[in-house]
Write a structure and sequence with these properties.
The protein has 221 residues and is an alpha/beta fold. The protein has one domain (45-219): 3-Layer(aba) Sandwich (Rossmann fold), CATH 3.40.50.10420. Helix content is 24%, strand content 24%. Strands 1-12-7-4-2-3 form a 6-stranded parallel sheet, with helices on both faces. Strands 8-5-6-9 form a 4-stranded mixed sheet. Strand 5 (132-134) and strand 6 (139-142) form a beta hairpin. It is elongated, with a radius of gyration of 25 Å.
Length: 221
């Protein structure tokens, strides 16, 4: 003699979902949400975007400067000298004019295969360009292209001087930046100097990258 099969006991998950379905039964369908992104300034207002980028970079504790093509070399030279940098990593494709103001005792170390991890660890600073900068978030994006180099160049030296060409490299928001970037490339998103906090919320800079970020907003023309 066989006993009748026992009915399956619903799980807690099934009981909760059943209650939810009963509660919303007969409710009208929710409209499809309209996806919107907040942009404080119109993308066609280059001056406002540059100002917003400047403001948000500074809010993330980057030090921001402005220069034109005639003054960028002297400015970069002063920044390196002011931080006591005596050795500078130079990625492939970096314009020579950006480093023309470096003092004679500054060693320019081209990333030509001789910058081993040990030698890079002993390098004081790096000067790079960028792929794009996002005004709304104060973020600079590097993709390993010309004037940017491999990721290690901007993660190991203690000082990063990054030159952003304005207005052509500045966009209003992240959604506008993404079409300019290749997801297959090594993207590095930078919002201020490297920083982290412990459980006590004590901020420590320089743990995962450079402690100091100097950004030059370069107006060319």
């Amino acid at each position: 003699m066989t006993s009748a099969p026992q009915p399956a006991v619903p799980s807690s998950r099934e009981r909760i979902l059943a209650r939810v379905r009963a509660a919303v039964a007969g409710a009208p369908e929710a409209p499809e949400p309209e996806r919107r992104y907040l942009t404080r300034h119109a993308p066609d207002d280059p001056a406002a975007l540059t100002d917003l980028l400047h403001e948000n970079l500074a809010d993330y504790r980057a030090v921001v400067h402005r220069a034109d093509a005639g003054g960028v070399a002297a400015l970069v030279g002063r920044l390196l000298s002011g931080h006591g940098a005596r050795s500078v990593a130079v990625p492939p494709g970096l314009p020579d004019a950006w480093l023309a103001g470096c003092a004679g005792d500054v060693e320019l170390r081209s990333d030509d295969g001789t910058l081993t991890p040990h030698r890079l660890d002993g390098t004081d600073a790096v000067v790079t360009g960028c792929a794009v900068a996002v005004a709304e978030t104060g973020t600079i994006v590097l993709d390993g292209g010309p004037a940017q180099g491999r990721r290690a160049l901007t993660l190991v030296p203690d000082l990063h001087v990054c030159v952003v060409r304005v207005p052509e490299q500045v966009v209003a928001s992240v959604p506008l930046a993404l079409p300019r970037l290749d997801p297959a490339r090594p993207l590095t998103w930078i919002s201020g100097p490297s920083a982290t906090s412990d459980i006590e919320l004590d901020r420590v800079e320089g743990v995962h990258g450079p402690r100091r970020l100097e950004v030059v907003l370069l107006t060319e023309g």
